[in-house]
C-alpha cells in the first residue's frame, strides 16, 4: 500500500479508536462514562500554572514536557517553546520556531529536542533556547527525540530509527523497518542507554540496536497480529517503552503487556492487554491504561491482575504515572485522576484543562506536571 494511502487509513483508524461517535460502523457508540462520586482522600495543590501557546492543537498530538535539572521545557503545536524553573514557574527563555511541532519535548545533556510534521529534528541550547542544529529525517516525527549525550535517536512515523550526532545533527545511521499495513497515528519515544537504542514498532515487536552502528542486538515479538481484517490485526506499540532497572516494560494495542530483559530481550512475563498510551511501574506492579478506559494493576511476579478500575470507560485516558502512593492519569475532559496503588480506589481529582488531558503526567520527586490539550501547564503537589 502506498505511504499516502496508508497514512490516510491510519488517521481514520485513530479517529475510530479514540474519538467517541467517530466509528464507521452503524452501531451507536456509547458515550464516555460519567465521573463517579467519591470521598476525596488527597488534595492536590497548584504550585504554579503557565500557558504554552496553542497546546496540542487540533490533531492527535502527544506533546509532553521534559525536565532536566531544575528546568522544565514545553512546546506547543506551532513551535512556541518555553523553558521554566520547575519549582517556581519562572520563564527562563522562550523561542518561537514557527514550525508544526509533533514530537516534543526531549531534553538532556544541554539539549532541548523537537520533531516536526515536516520530518525535521531541531536541537536547541537548553541554557538560552538558541538553535544549535536541525536535521532532516525520512518522515514526520510524532514522539520526542532522545539523547544520551553522544547520539540523538528519533523514531519516525515510517518506523525507521535514525541516529544523529548529538553535537552536530549529522546522520550516524538509519535502521529501516517495514511498518504494518494499517497503524494507529503515533509512535513511542525510544529508550536510550549508553550502548542500546530500544524501540517499539507498529508490528508489535521491540528491537534493540547498538548506538554506535545501528546494528540489531536483539528483537522480540510482544504481540502476534490476529483476526481476519487488517483492523483486527493492528498491534501498534504507540505508548512508548518504560525502562526501570534492567527491565523494559511495553504494552501493545490489541496485544499484550510484557516485561523484557534489557540485555537479551527475553520475555520475563506477559499478559493479554490493549493500550495505545503506555504503562507505569511501582511497588512491583505495572499499571496499564487500557484502550477501553480501564486502569489495571498487574503483579510482575505472577502476571496476574491485582485490581481493575473501569469506572472511567471510554474517557480516553492518558498514560498513567506513579505519584507518591498513587497512580495519576488524565482524561478527555481534562481531569487529572488519582487512584490508590493498593486497590485502585479513587482518592483525588482536579481539572487541569477543559480541552482535555491526553499527555502523560510528568512526575519528578514530590512534584507532578500536567500539560493540557489547550496549552495549560500546571505544577502540582500533594497538600
TrEMBL record:
Subcellular location: Cell outer membrane
Entry's Gene Ontology cellular component terms: cell outer membrane
SMART domains, per database record: PQQ
Function text: Part of the outer membrane protein assembly complex, which is involved in assembly and insertion of beta-barrel proteins into the outer membrane.
SUPFAM superfamilies with a match to the protein in the record: Quinoprotein alcohol dehydrogenase-like
Membrane topology: Lipid-anchor
Name this protein carries in UniProt: Outer membrane protein assembly factor BamB
GO biological process, one term: protein insertion into membrane
Main location: membrane
Record's signal peptide: 1-19
Similarity-based family: Belongs to the BamB family.
Record domain Pyrrolo-quinoline quinone repeat: where: 78-309
Keyword terms, alphabetized: Cell outer membrane, Lipoprotein, Membrane, Palmitate, Signal
Keyword Phosphoprotein: no
One Pfam family from the record: PQQ_2
Description of how the protein assembles with itself and partners: Part of the Bam complex.
